């Protein structure tokens, strides 16, 4: 009976995704997951098709169940993905952790688990705005110190890189904002962009095509900031007498530029125009208002992506 049973000295059963009466064993790296083929088939056309493929007579077994190897995946990612399929909804520990959630996002897209994919997108979309008004609303929340559902997303590099990688194939409408946040959070450190970051003993590395997007985006956004958000800070002279707007401009510019020459067109700076005359202030404000709207609509293009309209799912 057990002629094809494989003794796997180097493989171990998953602690929490091993059901004694499961009907199929999935092997990912050195971890074995015993799950239910009927349940996977119900939620995933990919697995449904996989389980109908005829097995060769010498197919490997494990504990009397067919053994299927998923070769290109990470065992911890698959564990979270399977947990989310077998639990009712995405467990809080995963939903509140952007690195783990991004694995569920990526694998639910890869294995065509539509409901789970939708749930992951629903958690991430409110914190990865696709319109300028939702961006401002999020910005206001952050400034007010409100906590977010996936708090770490906005301020840690591993989270941003993991979400960017997953979003590039599984939810591209999240990408423009995540890449913008990545430019901000990496603070000009190119090692982070090209070399990756260590998270839980693993190196999380931005996909090569996203590295290119990010570098191009950084220079395009700087140009847009200069040309359409802050043109009156760069170019105009003050019409009022008795004010020092023209010398203040240089001081303000040095505050706006980051050390590496990046100029953020969408970051709001409190009160740096307070000492300008009313006429200059109005002009600067009007430029920023119209300029930011224009930058937001160009944001995907700055990263070499399709337009917002093409990126955003139809139900928006
Ligand atoms: Zn002035």
TrEMBL record:
Name of this protein: BTB domain-containing protein
Record-linked InterPro entries: BTB/POZ_dom, SKP1/BTB/POZ_sf
Domain BTB span(s) in chain numbering: 22-86
A Pfam family this chain is assigned to: BTB
